């Protein structure tokens, strides 16, 4: 007898095929899923390119800041009160600068986390970065450096020193961009819209600005916030004496530059920067990165490193210095508690 064969009806063939597809799916779905996850994890960004993009963003935002001020179309209003009870101002310069800076970065790297001081409900800018890296960056940083994109947080301040901006105190105004990797500030850009001066630094690579030749930590010149100068004055005098030279100034970016050798700019030179009231991370991240790139320090008043991931708040105050014994200065500071400031 001839061997009996198994004959399947068309319905049976269809069922068999579906079962086969199901088996293949279950076999490979896990593999595909893990490969997709690995692909996402392997998405990287070049820090040298991010530096060039940050510089371009700060300059483009600065153009808007300058234009609005010169046209006197500020449209200023209050966003509300700060923690200390002062009016927090918002102008068209802040908003236009935010749009330029934020969307330039997001259009280039849509998967990056970008935190800005301002927010708006517009459809966004169509600005696209042409990926041109300035020669000053190429000469200083000959090779790129890739980092995981999900480790990066970008902090932008579209207009630092808004109060001074409304008072037409242009010397204090800056636009700033900072790139943090795993919470550590590694790229900082501070741009002065009204002079065109831009300072930048990248940790491990240096920058286009340098420390001054000497600093005095025993009888220092201390730069502080002009809007809270009375409160910080007593704090500084407790640490360094009643005859300490205290320099009130606007803008965290300006204060950091006052610690450095911005030879093309007119600055009141300071030996350290102290801030004792509440401050946001977009105010200080760029300055922190630049100081760190130059071997300097920016910490809380207790000497703790500031983490630039997660919350926008920095409740611990600020001590910034370069080329002095930072820990020794921390030890000279009086006891400080957030609840009292």
From TrEMBL:
Residues annotated as binding Mg(2+): 117, 157, 159-160, 283
Catalysed reaction equations from the record: a myo-inositol phosphate + H2O = myo-inositol + phosphate
GO MF, any single term: metal ion binding
EC number(s) from the headed UniProt entry: 3.1.3.25
InterPro entries: CysQ/Inositol_MonoPase (IPR050725), Inositol_monophosphatase-like (IPR000760), Inositol_monophosphatase_CS (IPR020550)
PROSITE patterns reported for this sequence: IMP_2 (PS00630)
CDD domains with a match to the protein in the record: IPPase (cd01640)
Cellular compartment(s): Membrane
Topology of this chain in the membrane: Single-pass membrane protein
Keywords of this entry: Hydrolase, Magnesium, Membrane, Metal-binding, Transmembrane, Transmembrane helix
GO biological process assignments: phosphatidylinositol phosphate biosynthetic process
Cofactor(s) needed for function: Mg(2+)
Pathway where this protein functions: Polyol metabolism; myo-inositol biosynthesis; myo-inositol from D-glucose 6-phosphate: step 2/2
Transmembrane helix among keywords: yes
Cellular component terms (Gene Ontology): Golgi apparatus; membrane
Primary location: membrane
Family affiliation: Belongs to the inositol monophosphatase superfamily.
PANTHER family in UniProt: 3'(2'),5'-BISPHOSPHATE NUCLEOTIDASE 1, INOSITOL MONOPHOSPHATASE 3
Protein name: inositol-phosphate phosphatase
Species, as recorded: Astyanax mexicanus (Blind cave fish)
């Amino acid at each position: 007898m001839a061997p009996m064969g198994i004959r399947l009806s068309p319905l049976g063939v269809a069922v068999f095929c579906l079962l086969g597809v199901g088996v293949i799916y279950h076999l490979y779905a896990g593999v595909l899923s893990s490969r997709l996850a690995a692909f996402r994890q392997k998405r990287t960004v070049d820090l040298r390119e991010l530096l060039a993009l940050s510089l371009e963003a700060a300059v483009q935002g600065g153009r808007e800041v300058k234009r609005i001020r010169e046209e006197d179309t500020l449209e200023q209003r209050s966003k509300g009160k700060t923690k200390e009870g002062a009016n927090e101002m918002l102008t068209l310069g802040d908003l236009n600068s935010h749009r330029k800076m934020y969307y330039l970065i997001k259009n280039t790297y849509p998967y990056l986390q970008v935190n800005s001081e301002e927010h708006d409900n517009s459809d966004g800018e169509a600005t696209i970065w042409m990926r041109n890296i300035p020669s000053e960056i190429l000469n200083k940083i000959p090779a790129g450096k890739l980092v995981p994109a999900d480790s990066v947080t970008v902090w932008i301040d579209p207009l630092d020193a808004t109060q001074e901006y409304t008072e037409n105190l242009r010397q204090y105004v800056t636009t700033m961009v900072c790139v943090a990797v795993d919470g550590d500030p590694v790229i900082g850009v501070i741009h002065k819209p009204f002079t065109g001066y831009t300072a930048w630094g990248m940790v491990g690579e240096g920058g286009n600005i340098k420390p001054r030749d000497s600093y005095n930590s025993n009888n220092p010149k201390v730069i502080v916030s002009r809007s809270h100068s009375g409160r910080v004055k007593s704090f500084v005098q407790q640490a360094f004496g009643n005859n300490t030279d205290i320099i009130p100034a606007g803008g965290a970016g300006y204060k950091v530059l006052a610690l450095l050798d911005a030879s093309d700019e007119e600055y009141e030179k300071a030996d350290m920067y102290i801030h004792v009231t509440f401050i946001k991370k977009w105010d200080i991240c760029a300055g922190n990165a630049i100081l760190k790139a130059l071997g300097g320090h920016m910490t809380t008043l207790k000497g703790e490193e500031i983490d630039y991931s997660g919350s926008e708040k920095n409740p611990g105050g600020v001590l910034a210095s370069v080329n002095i014994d930072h820990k020794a200065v921390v030890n000279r500071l009086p006891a400080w508690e957030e609840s009292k400031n």
